[in-house]
Specification:
Blueprint: H1 4-12, E1 30-31, E2 37-41, H2 46-51, H3 58-69, E3 77-81, H4 95-112, E4 116-120, H5 122-128, H6 135-138, E5 143-145, E6 148-153, H7 156-161, H8 166-181
Parallel strand pairs: 2-3, 2-4, 4-6
Antiparallel strand pairs: 1-3, 5-6
Length: 183
C-alpha cells in the first residue's frame, strides 16, 4: 500500500487533467488520518485553492459550525474533496476531471479506513453513493458498502445560498454525531 507521503507527493505533482495548469495549490485533504468519520466534498473553491486546505472559506466555516453544534471537532475528522484542484469559477467538476482524481480519494479512504463517510452535496453523493442520487430526497439516509456506512447531506455552500435548508441539514449532523458516538 502507498504511504501518506507518497500519495500526497504524487497528488501535488499531478498533471492528469487541465486543472493542474490553473491551480494555485493542490488541495489534498486535512484532518485526523485515523478518523472514524470522513467528509468528502466535490472540489476546492477559491479560498481552498489559495490556502491549499479544504473547506476554509465561508462554506468551511459553516461546516465547522455544524460540526461544533453537534459536539464534533474538526480535529477528529478527515476532510477531502473528489477533485484536488479548483475548477474555474467554481463550476461543477467535469466527469473526466473526477475520473482523473478519484484514485487519490480512494487511496486516502483506504489509508484512513473510516467507519463512516459523509458526502457533502449532490456531486459527491452522485460519484460516491449512486449516480442517480437525489440529494433533497435522500439526504440523511444511510447505506453500507464494504463495511463503510455512507450518507450525504447538503453542501455547506448550498446552505449559504439557501439558509431555509439549514434545519434539515442540522438534523443530518445530529444523526451523524449520534452514529459516531455509537461506534
Amino acid at each position: 500500500m502507498i504511504s501518506w507521503e507518497q500519495l500526497e507527493s504524487t497528488c501535488q505533482q499531478c498533471q492528469r487533467c487541465a486543472l493542474a495548469e490553473t491551480r494555485t495549490n493542490c488541495v489534498f485533504g486535512v484532518g485526523n488520518r485515523e478518523a472514524k468519520l470522513m467528509f468528502v466534498g466535490e472540489a476546492p473553491g477559491e479560498q481552498e485553492d489559495l490556502q491549499g486546505i479544504p473547506f476554509v472559506g465561508a462554506a468551511g466555516k459553516l461546516l465547522t459550525d455544524l460540526l461544533t453544534s453537534v459536539g464534533i471537532s474538526r480535529d477528529e475528522v478527515y476532510i477531502a474533496n473528489i477533485l484536488k484542484c479548483r475548477p474555474p469559477k467554481n463550476r461543477d467538476p467535469l466527469p473526466e476531471e473526477e475520473d482523473a482524481c478519484i484514485d487519490y480519494l480512494r487511496a486516502q479512504t483506504a489509508l484512513i479506513r473510516p467507519a463512516m463517510l459523509v458526502c457533502l452535496g449532490r456531486v459527491a453523493a452522485k460519484r460516491i453513493i449512486d449516480k442517480d442520487y437525489q440529494i433533497m430526497k435522500q439526504h440523511g439516509q444511510w447505506i453500507e458498502r464494504g463495511g463503510l456506512a455512507m450518507t450525504a447531506t447538503l453542501h455547506p455552500s448550498a446552505l449559504l445560498r439557501n439558509p431555509n435548508n439549514r434545519p434539515m441539514t442540522y438534523l443530518d449532523f445530529v444523526d451523524i454525531a449520534k452514529r459516531l458516538r455509537n461506534l
